[in-house]
Write a structure and sequence with these properties.
The protein is mainly beta and 663 residues long. Helix content is 8%, strand content 41%. The strands form ten sheets. A nine-stranded antiparallel beta sheet has the order 8-9-10-11-25-21-20-14-15. Strands 1-2-3-4-5 form a five-stranded antiparallel beta sheet, with helices on one face.
């Protein structure tokens, strides 16, 4: 019997023996093959998916597959195209004189006449694949099909080669062992307790719990993620890496605040998902959209090459201007991709409020919150950091069009928004000028937290979990480890001027501390959970000649009874729209009903930045007094929802920042 490894080696040797050029694109009876001096890639005709990737002489996939595409997009749910696909081999030389080869896979789901295409390109001298993905739907009889629930590309190896996961910078861990997974206890959907296998490297170094959500990343500064082989399992003792590089971000959704899955033994490229409350586009008649380019990079080093070194090698390609000549050259093969001739550099100078830190400019769908930029199928998004000293910002390779400009910064409440910003060849040399004046509702009395669109400064946010050597951020750890009743037996009582956000203000405001899916506390806990108290002192001079108080409450995430199903009408769920009440010195001043379309599973999925939304509560200052005052922030008591998965069926909030002003 011929082993799979020997079959691959024999196929590779046969192919290499007839290769005469630095890059070859070849078709056999069973496969389409791309190969250069370092990388060998083969797609099987039977599956329409990449089945072999060999770097040097090292098999990176084993019996696995990928990159390949799948989606939650057909009436029955998921579809993994390829079995009935047409495959096309592409060959060419780009404008730099560099040879390239490509494989196009196109499959049609006949029952609904929707199609998915994916392109894999390999260039001479590179050890990675450039990917584009296209989704179309043409069906006049059923003009609305469903939401595009997920669209993702997966590099899915099945081999003992890979030893470590790498999410964001500094967030990495050994891959849990087979023994640890065999002994695992499921504590929540997609979450397991591995702590019984005390000898496991992951358990020793990272956490007793494992979930793919622990390695999720926020898109703003994310460049690369992937898997690493430390040399102990490779055939030659060398180290290896497989990475997904965010060289472009324009075709994703949700802007720089979007959070998504990246790696868990599979290296993902999530182009569309509803994770963390992200909206998804509808599949309607005429839908035709291209995603990409993104780049899967494969590299290797000597036995002592570290994960960080291989990761840095991949991260150098996280630049939208990288390989632009190549992408221009292959635009003829990729419908809807816009070459350089249709792109410009957006230049602006923005007068920033005093104290603005880490300012950022976002161009996205016009007249729409960039967190919800899924309504126009041609929607694109771009962002770049603003120089905090000069206010200057340059965003390269923006497709010509009309955009909304959104600016935000750490330390500043609110957003600067300007619609109908034209980006075109006719004004490419212009420097757009804007002035952002920070919002104010009077004299600031106090604030809690930092307005930075995250709940990271609060207890169990960004603080490291020092119980393990790798010290992951605490919010990444399974939520039930942080036992709210033990840590806050009297509830949250935050005293301005005395209390500390990192210890005295929890990262999640629960309606009820749930028992279902709680590994440590199987019974729900209700006492002193849903009402949080803020105590503060006012002097006569604070109140003198004032009439209106404004409490700003900015949220970094919220889960209503809709969970991630944000657009659904759920008449049996009382708290689809979640009431949040503020009381001042015992008197209710306003109830804000948080809409379901802002809902998403956030904290229970290790999230700390999700759908950002805020509200200003105004009330007369005669409700305040000299001396000690109290504000009570209230969710409804035991405001729950039905969960179809093993998840806590409670509603909750995660605060970004709060501020009280008097006028």
């Amino acid at each position: 019997m011929v082993s799979l490894h020997n079959f691959k080696a024999a196929s590779l040797l046969t192919f290499l023996s007839r290769a005469t050029a630095f890059l070859n694109a070849t078709e056999t009876n069973t496969q389409l093959i791309l190969q250069n001096d370092r990388l060998y890639v083969a797609a099987d005709k039977s599956s329409g998916q990449v089945a072999d990737i060999v770097l040097g002489k090292e098999d990176l996939l084993g019996s696995g597959k990928g990159p390949y595409v799948d989606c939650s997009c057909v009436p029955s749910g998921f579809w993994s195209p390829g079995a009935t696909a047409q495959l096309q081999l592409i060959e060419g030389v780009d404008s730099t004189g560099t040879a390239y080869g490509g494989i196009k896979m196109m499959d049609t789901y006949a029952a609904t006449n929707q199609s998915i295409s994916q392109w894999w390109f390999l260039r001479e001298g590179e050890s990675g694949l450039h990917l584009f993905t296209r989704v179309t739907y043409f069906n006049e009889k059923t003009p609305f099909l469903r939401g595009l629930g997920e669209l993702r590309t997966l590099f899915r190896p099945s081999t003992a080669l890979w030893t470590h996961l790498s999410g964001g910078n500094g967030n990495w861990a050994p891959i849990p062992s087979t023994e640890a997974n065999r002994n695992a206890i499921t504590v929540q959907d997609a979450t397991t307790f591995l702590g019984n296998t005390t000898s496991d490297a992951y358990v020793k170094q990272y956490s007793d719990f494992f979930t793919k959500y622990m390695f999720s990343e926020v898109w703003r500064n994310h460049e690369v993620h992937g898997q690493y082989a430390d040399g102990t399992t490779s055939s030659d003792g060398n180290t290896y890496g497989a990475w997904l590089v965010h060289n472009t971000r324009e075709t994703y959704y949700g802007g720089p605040l979007h959070t998504d899955l990246v790696v868990d033994g599979i290296v993902y490229n999530y182009m569309v998902s509803g994770h963390y409350g992200a909206p998804v586009p509808n599949i309607t008649h005429g839908f035709d959209r291209i995603w990409g380019p993104q780049y899967y990079h494969f590299n290797s080093g000597g036995p002592n090459t570290t994960l960080d070194e291989l990761r840095a090698d991949a991260a150098q390609y996280a630049d939208p201007e990288w390989n632009s000549e190549f992408y221009d050259s292959i635009a003829e093969h990729v419908p809807n991709y816009v070459p350089t001739s249709g792109r410009v550099t957006f230049r602006a100078e923005i007068s920033l409020p005093e104290g603005a830190e880490r300012p950022i400019a976002v161009l996205a769908e016009n007249k729409q919150d960039f967190q919800l930029n899924v309504f126009d199928q041609t929607s694109l998004q771009y962002w770049a950091d603003i120089d905090p000293d000069t206010g200057a910002v340059n965003i390269p390779r923006v497709k010509e069009g009309i955009y909304r400009l959104t600016v935000y910064a750490d330390g500043i409440f609110g957003w600067f928004i300007e619609d109908d910003v034209e980006v075109s060849k006719s004004n490419e040399g212009d420097v757009h000028k804007f002035k952002w004046e920070s919002e104010s509702a009077g004299n600031e009395i106090w604030r809690i937290g930092i307005p930075d669109k995250s709940a990271g400064e609060y207890k169990h946010g960004y603080a490291p979990d020092t119980s393990k050597p790798l010290q992951p951020e605490q919010h990444r750890i399974y939520w039930a480890k942080w036992d709210f009743p033990t840590e806050f037996p009297n509830g949250v009582v935050f005293k301005i001027g005395e209390s500390n956000e990192a210890e005295d203000f929890n990262y999640i405001h629960w309606s009820v501390f749930f028992g279902y899916s709680n590994f440590y506390r199987p019974e729900p806990y209700y006492e002193n959970v849903n009402n949080w108290t803020i105590q503060f002192n006012l002097t006569q001079s604070d109140l003198q000649e004032t009439s209106i108080a404004t409490l700003t409450v900015d949220l970094a995430g919220v889960k209503t009874a809709n969970g991630n199903d944000k657009w659904a009408y759920l008449p049996n769920q009382k708290y689809s729209n979640l009431p949040f009440t503020v009381a001042t010195n015992g008197q209710d001043v306003e109830t804000w009903v948080i809409p379901s379309y802002r809902s998403g599973s956030c904290g229970v999925r290790s999230g700390i930045i999700c759908q950002n939304i805020g509200h200003k509560f105004e009330f007369p200052t005669n409700l305040l007094k000299e001396g000690v005052n109290e504000l009570v922030l209230s969710l409804p008591f035991n405001a729950t929802n039905d969960e179809t998965a093993l998840l806590p069926g409670t509603t909750y909030l995660q605060y970004d920042a709060l501020r009280l002003e008097l006028l």
